[in-house]
């Protein structure tokens, strides 16, 4: 039987500080009604000043490792999706590797912004299918508060911090379990729709998020739906076969519009944006872990991930959990 990647455990971490829309009313010209109507967000978590992206990732990874029943020495790869690393280098992944006493092996970061977790998952999946790795820790971790302009009410109200993790394990498959397929896309011609106005080789600073919200919304619905339809087509299934859609948690209206375009009822869509905000690469693994922990997503369920982020990047992944 061919080898296929299976998600054997999940983990997550959210900073302690909860920032509500009411809290934001005190620092920027906005209102709970304005934020809720446009995004569906009620609150988000904000990391402490001395709390780094690697701190978030380590906590999520530790939980996933504990739940898996594996030991650190069983992990032979760490891949982290992040756009907010602690430092220019080294990678957040090597910090996680060291903190968990994982032995020498593959450890690196992936940067595809909000689509990052699907990119990282796809890379890990290919390592496993090629027989190069057995157990891979895949994490989405972000401290988005570090790249926000807290005077820009159009962006600072949308984002939050957190980390989500999964462990992928190589197992023989009859074709009816594990990761079925992943689909990755990018179009740099739309890079100016969502970006930061800084960087290592330009300003020497990380910069702040700049977003053309209306254009991002329009492209998000169409491109994410197309990525989902590609996954369905390639696997010869229909939307009615999906047990759960786990979308990138950017905006409730985008999620609802995408579900409607696919003919999916919202009771089959995982929605955490109201209490997580947009955590970029962390949003899908955070939402997935919450649904698994609550018992909504169960073993054997067919799950579809989909996301769109700056670049523009977008993609989907079809998984039998």
Topology:
Blueprint: E1 3-13, E2 17-20, H1 21-25, H2 32-39, E3 43-46, H3 53-68, E4 77-81, H4 92-99, E5 106-110, H5 116-129, E6 135-143, E7 161-172, E8 178-186, E9 194-196, E10 209-211, H6 213-234, E11 244-247, H7 252-262, H8 273-276, H9 283-294, E12 302-309, E13 313-320
Parallel strand pairs: 4-5, 4-6, 11-12
Antiparallel strand pairs: 1-7, 2-3, 6-7, 8-13, 9-10, 12-13
Helix pairs in contact: 3-4, 6-7
Outline the structure in words.
The protein is an alpha/beta fold and 321 residues long. The protein has two domains: 3-172, Thiolase/Chalcone synthase (Peroxisomal Thiolase, Chain A, domain 1); 178-320, 3-Layer(aba) Sandwich (Peroxisomal Thiolase, Chain A, domain 1), CATH 3.40.47. Helix content is 31%, strand content 26%. It has helices at residues 21-25, 32-39, 53-68, 92-99, 116-129, 213-234, 252-262, 273-276, 283-294; strands spanning 3-13, 17-20, 43-46, 77-81, 106-110, 135-143, 161-172, 178-186, 194-196, 209-211, 244-247, 302-309, 313-320. A five-stranded mixed beta sheet has the order 1-7-6-4-5, sandwiched between helices. A four-stranded mixed beta sheet has the order 8-13-12-11, with helices on both faces. A two-stranded antiparallel sheet has the order 2-3. Helix 3 crosses helix 4. The chain starts with a strand and ends with a strand.
